[in-house]
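Try it yourself: sequence plus iron/sulfur cluster, in.
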Amino acid sequence: MSHCALPLLPEQDDHEYELSDYEGARARWCPGCGDHSILAAVQKLLTQEQLVPEQTVFVSGIGCSSRFPHYLKTYGFHGIHGRALPVATGIRLHRPDLTVFVVMGDGDCTSIGAAHWVHALRYNPDLVVLLLDNGIYGLTKLQTSPTTPQGFPTNTQPHGSLLPPIDPLQVALGVTNASFVAQTAEWAPAHLFATLRAAYRHKGLSFVRILQRCPIYAGPVYQKLVTDPARIALLLHEDGVMVPELGKLYANHVAHDPHDIHAARRLAADRDHINIGLFFVDPSRPRYEEIRRVAPRTAAERVALLNKELDRYAV
Ligand code: SF4
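Structure, out:
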């Protein structure tokens, strides 16, 4: 009797991943969309940190930004509207060996997904959560989202958005047990990358709001911020996000200790400037996957329990 020997797989430790190892389908976002810049920064992060593609997962909901998993050669789950965080939390709990990223838009995260967002922050699983905030529903072509600036005309509120927008930073900083809250902008790629790297290296849920331009439906939303750097202030601290090469472009600097939650909340509420950087970090905050008590089970025991549960619905 003969048998074929399987070819030996290359030792994972010896393999150096290149940018092309992470590039998926060609991105179909509009020309000039800020999502392109964010994708490039994420691919750079994956390459620099040498994340193993088959041990990395991107989970998204619905919206323009939620096409993210298609454009990466990792595992991906393009889910349903507002439900990216429960899916990602489930993956995290059952496969702690995987690195899990979540990509959501402002409608996805702060509207239909708001309850999941708040409770995920509190549960603090080890996830990198990116809110790509363009201040509009872009995929469905110009409806008011919770972060649309007051007075901005949309298809659903043609005389201007009626209410002041929700502030994702103030919400996140108000949630018990939130452990990492940062803000950056896609048109400052060095700052974006440094923020993503800090988020990835944090243990716990890293929430990063990324100001993201939608030139098709919401061009004016960030236009003044892009053209006038004086409207932006850099939060600086050795434990925060430091990008010295941006110091001249963004001349407003705020020394901020990101371990100070009260100062973080004050800075989030600041309306004189848009502050970018790390607002808050506390790696000692409990992570749900570490503190929950689950008796270890064999695969056979898990299958038996699953069958028992499914039998409850047998007709
Ligand atoms: Fe980007 Fe806006 Fe186009 Fe969507 S509609 S892909 S957010 S520019």
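One thing you can check immediately is this: Strands lie at 56-60, 75-78, 99-105, 128-133, 180-185, 206-211, 232-236, 252-255, 274-281.
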